[in-house]
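Lecture notes, part 5. Sequence design as translation. It can be helpful to think of inverse folding as translation between two languages: the language of shapes and the language of residues. The source text, in C-alpha coordinates, appears below.
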Protein backbone atom coordinates (compact mmCIF):
# COMPACT_ATOMS: atom_id res chain seq x y z
CA UNK A 1 0.00 0.00 0.00
CA UNK A 2 1.24 3.53 -0.69
CA UNK A 3 2.78 5.11 2.41
CA UNK A 4 0.90 8.09 3.78
CA UNK A 5 3.03 11.25 4.13
CA UNK A 6 6.37 9.59 3.26
CA UNK A 7 9.48 11.18 4.71
CA UNK A 8 7.79 12.94 7.62
CA UNK A 9 8.82 12.08 11.18
CA UNK A 10 6.39 9.60 12.79
CA UNK A 11 5.40 11.88 15.69
CA UNK A 12 4.35 14.72 13.39
CA UNK A 13 2.65 12.34 10.97
CA UNK A 14 0.53 10.82 13.74
CA UNK A 15 -0.29 14.27 15.11
CA UNK A 16 -1.62 15.32 11.70
CA UNK A 17 -3.46 12.04 11.16
CA UNK A 18 -5.08 12.14 14.58
CA UNK A 19 -6.24 15.72 14.08
CA UNK A 20 -7.73 14.87 10.69
CA UNK A 21 -9.32 11.62 11.85
CA UNK A 22 -10.92 13.40 14.80
CA UNK A 23 -12.29 16.16 12.59
CA UNK A 24 -13.86 13.81 10.03
CA UNK A 25 -15.15 11.53 12.79
CA UNK A 26 -16.85 14.50 14.49
CA UNK A 27 -18.33 16.36 11.52
CA UNK A 28 -19.85 15.44 8.15
CA UNK A 29 -17.40 15.83 5.30
CA UNK A 30 -18.94 19.09 4.15
CA UNK A 31 -18.55 20.68 7.61
CA UNK A 32 -15.14 19.24 8.47
CA UNK A 33 -12.63 22.09 8.59
CA UNK A 34 -9.01 21.98 7.49
CA UNK A 35 -8.53 25.05 9.70
CA UNK A 36 -9.51 22.95 12.71
CA UNK A 37 -7.15 20.18 11.58
CA UNK A 38 -4.07 22.38 11.24
CA UNK A 39 -4.84 24.12 14.54
CA UNK A 40 -5.08 20.78 16.38
CA UNK A 41 -2.00 19.41 14.64
CA UNK A 42 0.04 22.56 15.24
CA UNK A 43 1.09 22.91 11.60
CA UNK A 44 0.55 25.40 8.80
CA UNK A 45 -2.23 24.98 6.26
CA UNK A 46 0.43 25.09 3.56
CA UNK A 47 2.11 22.02 5.01
CA UNK A 48 -1.19 20.11 5.14
CA UNK A 49 -1.87 20.82 1.48
CA UNK A 50 1.74 20.10 0.60
CA UNK A 51 1.14 16.50 1.65
CA UNK A 52 -2.45 16.08 0.48
CA UNK A 53 -3.22 18.76 -2.09
CA UNK A 54 -6.90 19.08 -1.19
CA UNK A 55 -9.46 18.24 1.46
CA UNK A 56 -10.88 15.48 -0.73
CA UNK A 57 -7.49 13.81 -1.20
CA UNK A 58 -6.87 14.08 2.54
CA UNK A 59 -10.16 12.33 3.24
CA UNK A 60 -9.54 9.63 0.65
CA UNK A 61 -6.11 8.87 2.05
CA UNK A 62 -7.52 8.76 5.58
CA UNK A 63 -10.06 6.18 4.41
CA UNK A 64 -7.26 4.03 3.05
CA UNK A 65 -5.12 4.50 6.14
CA UNK A 66 -7.94 3.59 8.55
CA UNK A 67 -9.02 0.53 6.56
CA UNK A 68 -5.47 -0.76 6.28
CA UNK A 69 -4.63 -0.04 9.93
CA UNK A 70 -7.62 -1.97 11.23
CA UNK A 71 -7.38 -4.74 8.65
CA UNK A 72 -3.72 -5.39 9.40
CA UNK A 73 -4.31 -5.31 13.16
CA UNK A 74 -7.15 -7.82 12.93
CA UNK A 75 -5.40 -10.18 10.52
CA UNK A 76 -2.23 -10.20 12.62
CA UNK A 77 -3.90 -10.85 15.99
CA UNK A 78 -7.31 -12.49 15.65
CA UNK A 79 -7.68 -16.26 16.11
CA UNK A 80 -10.15 -17.34 13.42
CA UNK A 81 -10.26 -20.85 14.90
CA UNK A 82 -11.92 -19.50 18.05
CA UNK A 83 -15.56 -20.71 18.10
CA UNK A 84 -16.74 -18.87 21.22
CA UNK A 85 -18.39 -15.58 20.32
CA UNK A 86 -17.48 -13.99 23.66
CA UNK A 87 -13.81 -14.83 23.14
CA UNK A 88 -13.96 -13.44 19.60
CA UNK A 89 -15.43 -10.17 20.84
CA UNK A 90 -12.77 -10.01 23.55
CA UNK A 91 -10.08 -10.38 20.90
CA UNK A 92 -11.56 -7.46 18.97
CA UNK A 93 -11.77 -5.36 22.14
CA UNK A 94 -8.07 -5.98 22.85
CA UNK A 95 -7.13 -5.16 19.26
CA UNK A 96 -9.16 -1.99 19.52
CA UNK A 97 -7.31 -1.03 22.70
CA UNK A 98 -3.97 -1.39 20.91
CA UNK A 99 -4.99 0.66 17.90
CA UNK A 100 -6.90 3.26 19.88
CA UNK A 101 -3.87 3.91 22.06
CA UNK A 102 -2.16 5.46 19.04
CA UNK A 103 -5.24 6.71 17.15
CA UNK A 104 -8.01 7.55 19.67
CA UNK A 105 -10.69 8.53 17.11
CA UNK A 106 -9.99 5.89 14.48
CA UNK A 107 -13.02 3.77 15.39
CA UNK A 108 -15.40 6.73 15.39
CA UNK A 109 -14.17 7.53 11.89
CA UNK A 110 -14.54 3.90 10.84
CA UNK A 111 -18.09 3.66 12.18
CA UNK A 112 -19.15 6.70 10.19
CA UNK A 113 -17.45 5.33 7.13
CA UNK A 114 -19.18 1.94 7.39
CA UNK A 115 -22.58 3.55 8.05
CA UNK A 116 -22.31 5.65 4.86
CA UNK A 117 -22.47 8.96 6.70
CA UNK A 118 -19.59 10.36 4.62
CA UNK A 119 -19.02 10.87 0.92
CA UNK A 120 -20.01 8.23 -1.59
CA UNK A 121 -16.34 8.46 -2.59
CA UNK A 122 -15.58 6.35 0.48
CA UNK A 123 -17.29 3.41 -1.19
CA UNK A 124 -15.02 3.84 -4.19
CA UNK A 125 -11.99 3.84 -1.92
CA UNK A 126 -13.16 0.65 -0.22
CA UNK A 127 -13.48 -1.01 -3.63
CA UNK A 128 -10.05 0.31 -4.57
CA UNK A 129 -8.43 -1.22 -1.51
CA UNK A 130 -10.10 -4.55 -2.21
CA UNK A 131 -7.73 -4.65 -5.16
CA UNK A 132 -4.89 -4.86 -2.64
CA UNK A 133 -6.61 -7.72 -0.83
CA UNK A 134 -8.00 -5.47 1.92
CA UNK A 135 -11.70 -6.28 2.21
CA UNK A 136 -12.61 -4.78 5.58
CA UNK A 137 -16.34 -5.18 4.99
CA UNK A 138 -15.91 -8.94 4.64
CA UNK A 139 -13.68 -9.09 7.70
CA UNK A 140 -16.31 -7.17 9.67
CA UNK A 141 -18.88 -9.82 8.78
CA UNK A 142 -16.46 -12.67 9.51
CA UNK A 143 -15.78 -11.40 13.02
CA UNK A 144 -19.26 -12.43 14.15
CA UNK A 145 -19.77 -15.45 11.91
CA UNK A 146 -16.62 -17.34 10.88
CA UNK A 147 -16.39 -20.62 12.87
CA UNK A 148 -18.61 -19.22 15.65
CA UNK A 149 -20.73 -21.80 17.54
CA UNK A 150 -24.10 -20.17 18.06
CA UNK A 151 -25.48 -23.40 19.51
CA UNK A 152 -24.17 -22.31 22.91
CA UNK A 153 -26.86 -19.66 23.28
CA UNK A 154 -29.89 -20.62 25.33
CA UNK A 155 -32.19 -18.37 23.29
CA UNK A 156 -31.21 -17.97 19.61
CA UNK A 157 -33.80 -15.20 19.29
CA UNK A 158 -31.72 -12.90 21.53
CA UNK A 159 -28.30 -13.58 19.95
CA UNK A 160 -28.02 -10.20 18.23
CA UNK A 161 -28.88 -8.44 21.50
CA UNK A 162 -26.28 -10.53 23.32
CA UNK A 163 -23.63 -9.56 20.78
CA UNK A 164 -24.37 -5.89 21.33
CA UNK A 165 -24.35 -6.16 25.14
CA UNK A 166 -21.03 -8.05 25.20
CA UNK A 167 -19.43 -5.75 22.62
CA UNK A 168 -20.57 -2.58 24.39
CA UNK A 169 -19.44 -3.92 27.78
CA UNK A 170 -15.95 -5.00 26.71
CA UNK A 171 -15.33 -1.99 24.48
CA UNK A 172 -16.39 0.39 27.27
CA UNK A 173 -14.12 -1.44 29.69
CA UNK A 174 -11.24 -1.07 27.25
CA UNK A 175 -11.95 2.65 26.90
CA UNK A 176 -11.88 3.04 30.68
CA UNK A 177 -8.53 1.26 30.86
CA UNK A 178 -7.11 3.55 28.19
CA UNK A 179 -8.44 6.61 30.02
CA UNK A 180 -6.58 5.52 33.16
CA UNK A 181 -3.26 5.23 31.32
CA UNK A 182 -0.87 7.98 30.44
CA UNK A 183 0.12 8.50 26.83
CA UNK A 184 3.46 6.76 27.43
CA UNK A 185 2.09 3.89 29.50
CA UNK A 186 2.30 0.52 27.71
CA UNK A 187 -0.88 -1.55 27.52
CA UNK A 188 -0.84 -4.75 29.56
CA UNK A 189 -3.03 -6.81 27.25
CA UNK A 190 -2.64 -9.98 29.31
CA UNK A 191 -3.97 -8.25 32.43
CA UNK A 192 -6.77 -6.62 30.44
CA UNK A 193 -7.76 -10.03 29.06
CA UNK A 194 -7.89 -11.54 32.54
CA UNK A 195 -10.10 -8.72 33.75
CA UNK A 196 -12.39 -9.12 30.76
CA UNK A 197 -12.72 -12.84 31.51
CA UNK A 198 -14.36 -11.97 34.84
CA UNK A 199 -17.03 -9.85 33.16
CA UNK A 200 -17.47 -12.38 30.37
CA UNK A 201 -18.24 -15.13 32.90
CA UNK A 202 -21.06 -13.00 34.28
CA UNK A 203 -22.45 -12.33 30.81
CA UNK A 204 -22.13 -15.96 29.73
CA UNK A 205 -24.30 -17.06 32.63
CA UNK A 206 -27.01 -14.82 31.25
CA UNK A 207 -26.84 -15.88 27.60
CA UNK A 208 -25.33 -19.40 27.38
CA UNK A 209 -26.96 -22.74 28.03
CA UNK A 210 -26.23 -24.14 31.53
CA UNK A 211 -22.85 -25.85 31.73
CA UNK A 212 -21.28 -23.93 28.83
CA UNK A 213 -20.53 -20.66 30.54
CA UNK A 214 -17.25 -21.81 32.15
CA UNK A 215 -15.45 -23.02 29.04
CA UNK A 216 -11.81 -22.05 28.78
CA UNK A 217 -10.70 -18.49 28.22
CA UNK A 218 -7.84 -17.34 26.06
CA UNK A 219 -5.45 -14.50 26.86
Amino acid sequence: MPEIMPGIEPEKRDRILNAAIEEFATFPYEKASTNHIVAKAGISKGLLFHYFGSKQVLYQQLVGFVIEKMYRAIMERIDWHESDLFERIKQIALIKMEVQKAYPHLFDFLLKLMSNQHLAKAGEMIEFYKGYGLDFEQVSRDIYTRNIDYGKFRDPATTSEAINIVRWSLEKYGEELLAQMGSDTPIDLAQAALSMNHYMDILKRSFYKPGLEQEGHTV
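The translated text above is only one of many valid answers, since several sequences can fold into similar shapes. The CA atoms of residues 66 and 110 lie 7 Å apart.
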